[in-house]
Amino acid sequence: TAVEAGDTINCQFQYNTDLFDRETVRRMAERFVTLLDSIVADPERAVARLTVLSPEELHRVTVDWNATSADYRRDATVVTLFEEQAARNPHFIAVEGDAETLTYGDLDRAANRIAHHLQSLGVGPESLVAVSTERTPRMLAVLLGIWKAGGAYVPLDPSFPAERLAYMLESSQAKVLVTQQSVRGVLPAYGGQVVMIDDDWEAIQRGSDVAPPRSSDPENLAYVLYTSGSTGLPKGVEIPQRAVVNFLSSMA
Fold first, then answer.
1. Given 105, 129, 169, 247, which is the most exposed site by the fewest CB atoms within 10 A?
2. Cα distance between residue 129 and residue 153, in whole Å
3. What is the C-alpha to C-alpha distance for residues 155 and 35, in angstroms, rounded to an integer?
């Protein structure tokens, strides 16, 4: 409420104390005064360019609150960090599914065997491997195995239309397709090498469970995600290992 009194205007703020506390309303009042001051200082300025923040508050919001940088392992890949965790806590549970539970040691060994199998098919740094499986602990072993082999994955959601999946396979030129019987029927025809994580699992698990020599670094690809395609055909966005490590470090 604004009331004129001679050459002054007295303003009073009334508010519901169930919704606002005194400090919040005090800040609102200060910003209102700042807004009035900015109008008086430049009456011709467009409303959108008027300020409601004092210099001190503007600095706090734009500088102090954005001082969020933190050190993290810039030299690491996700595989590096995972293997360190597996070495520290091999018996800790890493992932649970409806029918399967894997410790870090189990997951590490399974991923190593998958990595050796993929390398035998020619997967290496920057190789793209399409993945379309059910979301189970075994899928996680596949993704880690692709990284351990040096490659990057292209996720194919089996619920997508067949035309979109066909385009993603053709566009990515994936060297290998990893899938399973329960979803293979909805995937388009594929002329490359196919790994079935159900039919081929026993053969894969007979391979070496020792980690293959490191063949990727933070600049290598981790995965390629395809956009929604709302402006035309979907575009493949390449995400390097360093970006994934940055994201996971910030989450941690």
1. 247
2. 5
3. 50
Among the listed residues 193, 93, 207, the one whose alpha carbon sits nearest the alpha carbon of residue 140: 93
Q: Determine the length of the chain.
A: 252
Which residues have C-beta within 8 Å of that of residue 229, sequence separation ≥ 6? Answer: 164, 235
Helix, coil or strand: residue 60: helix
pLDDT, one tens digit per residue, over 6-31 is 999 999 999 999 999 999 999 999 99
Contact assessment for residue 233 and residue 167, using Cβ atoms and an 8 Å cutoff:
yes
Cα gap 174→89, rounded to integer Å: 34
* Residue type present at position 159: S
Distance CA 199, CA 201 (A): 6
Whole-structure pTM value: 0.76
